[in-house]
Structure formats: structure tokens, C-alpha cells
Amino acid sequence: MRLGISHLHASLGGARVLRDLTLSLEGTNFIGLIGPNGVGKTTLIRAIAGLIPFQGSVTLDGAEIASIPPRTRAKQIAYLAQGAESHWPLSVERLVALGRLPHLEPFRKPQPADEAAIARAMTLADVDTMRARDVLTLSGGERARVLLARALSVEAPLLLVDEPVAALDPYHQLGVMEGLVAYARAGRMVVAVLHDLSLAARYCDRLVMLNEGTVFADGTPAEVLTPANLREVYRVEAEITGEGRAMTVRPTGQI
Amino acid sequence: MRDRLPNYLLVNLALACLAALFFVASIYVGRGGELLFARLHAADEIDRSLAWLILTEIRLPRACLGLVVGATLGLTGAGLQGLLRNPLAEPGLIGASSGAALGAVLVFYFGLAAGSAMLVPLGGVAGALASLGLLYMLAGRNPSIVTIILAGVAISAFASAFTSLALSLAASPYAVYEIIFWLLGSFTDRSMDQLWFALPFVVVGLALVASTSRALDALTLGEDTATSLGFNQRHVKLRAILGTGLAVGATVAVTGVIGFVGLVVPHIVRPFVGHQPGRLLLPSAFAGAALLLAADLLVRLPVGGPEPKLGVITSLIGAPFFLWLILRTRREAN
Question: What share of chain B is helix, strand, coil (3-state, %, to 5)?
Fold first, then answer.
């Protein structure tokens, strides 16, 4: 999977959000998209998913995403919106099964392959035990995991997730990050918007730090999360300790 | 462990059987509970062709209309609730019913209804198409759900205003009488020709709405996620709205306005098949047909005096149900 973004411009309500953003992502990777509020992380994800109009080019394995037929694109790119919700009280299993819609043939029932994908997704997101429950009666964190399972069940080679761990307790934050790593290790690419810099540092193979609508820093967590970068982009002083899975970023004060 | 819902196929089968049962009853039971065979027997002694006429010209059109109109209101109601992601949506919301009613009323107003029985449904369908065109112009090429609802409400209000205007300016009290009675909605004195005229619009309309079934499921997750699952939102809205407008407009053109069925039926079906919008469509069609045929049987029960209009009965039953729905939603919110 190769995702190429070049000279991307996008506006929301007249305001320029992304400015001349160029980025190339390749291979099996778990990529963290970081940056303070309002720098265009969500807009970038939505542009890649083909949900908003933009200028410039976004290509998937060399093909412009706008030129890929919607159904094919739906099989290649899965998207989990920030604060996603369900409008109807479906059972957990039925909701997760919606992720298989791009794979269903017209007038055909879900195949064993679909059932297997649903089961894998539910295990990865740790929602097996609540499969018969009504999603609207779940807690916010449980529901967030169910909706993540829905996005995982597409089993698309590119998964875009917007703040997947924001509503979760520490146990499930770690669980979901492990799940996303496992999903990527199966030969796929995950691009996740993350606010918890320690989690991003520990689990992501690569971090892309956005600032003012364009790429500010791009590289391994150790390269991107430096006190200087955090000062400039996040306007915080931070203490960075450890490395690899033990790396911790602790903001100590505002500038 | 699956969710505790009865087998989908069995629910559909049961509802289809119920609709078939009421269909047969609708042919068999006449005014004041008078049974077909007794009636036919009496007529047969006088004139054999008269007996046949009663069956094909009176009983059969009425039962077929019940089936077609009920299925239309049920299916489009479920479809629109799915599209708008709102359990209070009903097929009349997009303005096509009011447009169809206005078109038919204008035919009465200009005194053309006496000329041919076909002119009323023709005017109705023209009205429905005009209101759909207006909706498209008002809502634009890529409308949001809110824009569609607001435009639909505006068109309904406008069409109702014109209907009232036609009533107040009508030349003779008979025209007023005719219009009011037609507006109340009924299956009586409709011919097979009128049904055949409406049927193509209904079939195309229902097929369009049914084709959005999976897109409606995807819309459970919101428009962005549905788009990411491969469903073009503009096409989905176009198919669902155009289909609803065509099918409901054509049925209103033949029977007048029959309220609350499209709103109530999906709520009756949900406890049996769950809330997934796509799964609701087929059972809602069967349940709508069964409900409307049953209501039309109820209308025939009073022996003396004039027959109450079907639209009145459905509203009499539907309005309290609507209130109960509001109370339940309020309870759930607490």
C-alpha cells in the first residue's frame, strides 16, 4: 500500500485548513498523525477518505482516489470518524457487520468470509462479550470500541482512524493500540490521529506532526517528539524519557 | 449468541400471510359484515353478470388498492425514517402527497372530474411530479437532510394553502363537498383502471426505495461513514426521495390522503426485526398492507348511516399511537 499526497490544499467554510501538504506513506506501518487542535489532522484524514473537496492530489498505489469507483475505494480505505455514533439501537454484532457492506454482492447474504472478518474485528477491539447488546445502552468507551470494530471489519489495506482512544480507560487504550498494531502487522497501513503523545510514541512506527495545515516533522517517534518540536508546535515544555515501547512524553508547562 | 429477534424470514412470512388473510376478507366481507357468497347468491338469481360485476368492479379494486397503498405507505415510511434517521418521519414529509392532493383537487375545482374518472389520478400524479420538481429546485443538487425536510415542509404548506384556496373559491357547494370527501381518503368507488394507472409509478417508486436498502443500513453510522462504505449520498437521497414521491404521489392521486400509516407501521415492525433500516423495508410493506386492509374492513362495519372515510379511521387510530410514541421517547430520555 502506497499513499501519496502532494500539494494538498483544503478549505473548510472559507478558511484554509491544509496548505500545500505533501506526504508519502508506504508499506506496512502504523502511522500516528499528531499536532495540536485545529492544525488539520481530521481534515487531512477526511481528504484521504474522499469525503471533502480538495486541490492537489491524493493517490492510492498510484491511482487518484477521486478516480477509484466508490465501491472499490470502500474496500481499500476504511474510515472511523471522530466521536462516531450509531443512529439506531442495533445489536453490537449487527453494527460491526455494517463494515462488510462494501464486500457484499447484490442480493447475497454475508458469506463465511464476512462472518470470519466480523469475528476477527470483534476480537481485536475486545467487544466479543457484548455481541448481543444494544449499542445505545453501552457506555461511551464501550461504544467507541464497537465502532472501531466496525471499521476494522472492513479489513481494508488502509485504515484511517480519528482519535480511536480518546474515550477509553487505560486498559482499553493499551488494548486498542495493540489491536491497531496487530491490524497493521497483518500487512496493512493504519493512519491514526492521536492526542496522547506517549501512546503515539510507544506504538507508532512513524509519526507525522502537523502544524498550521502542513507537515512540520515526519519520522520515527524519537525524531519527531523532541523538546524543540513540542515547544514550537504544541507550545509546551515537555519531559521526554525512555525509548521504544517505554518512551514517555510528559508535558510539564505551557509556554 | 445472536440478538433475540425472531427469524427474519418467518416474520416476513407471517406478515405476508396476515396481509393475504385481510385481502381475502376484504373481498369476502362487505358493508355491515355482509358476506360475499350471500350477496352473490342473491345477485346471481337476478343476473349472473351482475354478480361478476360486484366482484371485479367493486370488491376487487378495493382490496387491491388496500394491498398496494398499504405496502407503499409502509415501505416508503420505513425508507424515509431510515434516510432521515428520524423515527418521526413519514412519507408525506417531502411534500409529494400534498402536491398530489392539490393536483387532484384542482381537477375537481375546474369541474373536470365528471368528465372522466381518470382525470383525478392524472391531476394527482401531475401534482406529485410538480412538487418533486420544486423540491429538487429548492434543495439543490447536493442537499443536506435538513434542507430536504425544510423544503418538503414548505411545499406541503404551500400546496395546502392552495387546496384551501380552491375550497373557498369553489363555484358550487357540491364541488366543495366532493373535494372534502375526496381529501379524507377512501378506497370506495375506485376502478381497476385507476389502479392500473397508478401501478407503474408505484412499482418504479418502490423499486427505487428498495434499492437503497443497504445504503440505509450504512446511514446508521452517519453520512460520512456511509460514504466511506461506498454509498454516494447524492444518489441515495435522489433514489429514496424520488421513489417515495412517485409511489406515494400516485397512491394519493387515486385514494386521497391516508395519514399515519407510513409513520406507524415501521414502529409496529421494529420489535420483531430490529432497528436496522434495510431489514425494515420488506416487513413494513407487508405490515402496511395488512394494517390498511384491516382498517378498510373496520370502515365497513357500521351498518346504518354513511361509511366513515378510511383516512379518518387511520388518523383516529394513528394519532393516539403517535402520542404514545412521544410519551415513550420522553420516558426513554429520562
Answer: 80, 0, 20
Residue of A76, A98, A153 best to disrupt the B interface, most CBs of B under 10 A:
A98
Please return the burial class of A113, using the count of CB atoms within 10 Å of its CB with bins 0-12, 13-18 and 19+.
Answer: exposed
Contact B309, B185 (CB under 8 A): yes
- Number of domains chain A contains: 1
Domain residues for the domain of A202 are 2-254
Q: How far apart are alpha carbons A31 and A43 in whole angstroms? A: 16
The backbone torsions φ and ψ at residue A86, rounded to the nearest 5 degrees and listed phi first, read -110, 135
Nearest to B3 among A71, A81, A91 (CB): A91
Substitution target from A42, A87, A150, A158 for chain B, most B beta carbons within 10 A: A87
Residue type, B116: S
Return the CATH number at A164: 3.40.50.300
The CATH class given to the B13-333 domain equals mainly alpha
Report how far Cα B175 is from the mean position of its chain's Cα atoms: 25
Cell readout for B21 is 388473510
Measured distance CA(B242)–CA(B94) in Å, rounded: 10
Chain center to CA of A162? 5
The 10s digit of each residue's pLDDT in B176-193 is 888 888 888 888 888 888
Instruction: Cell numbers for B12, please give them.
Output: 416476513
pLDDT in tens, A180-212: 999 999 999 999 999 999 999 999 999 999 999
Which residues are within 8 A (CB) of B55 and not within 5 positions of it... i.e. 6 or more apart?
B27, B36, B40
- DSSP code of residue B59: I
CA B32 → CA A160, B50, B54, B184, distances in Å? 65, 20, 16, 21
Q: Is A114 helix (H, G, I), strand (E, B) or coil?
A: helix
- Beta strands (DSSP E) in B125-241 are none
ipTM over cut 0.90: yes
| Identity of the residue in A79, A90, A91 whose CB atom sits nearest the CB atom of B225 | A79
Q: How does residue A255 score in pLDDT terms, banded at 50, 70 and 90?
A: confident
Our CA-based measurement puts residue B32 at a distance from the nearest CA of chain A, in whole angstroms, of 43
- Rounded Cα distance between B23 and A125, Å, is 49
Give pTM, 2 decimals: 0.90
Stretch A149-172: mean pLDDT, rounded? 93
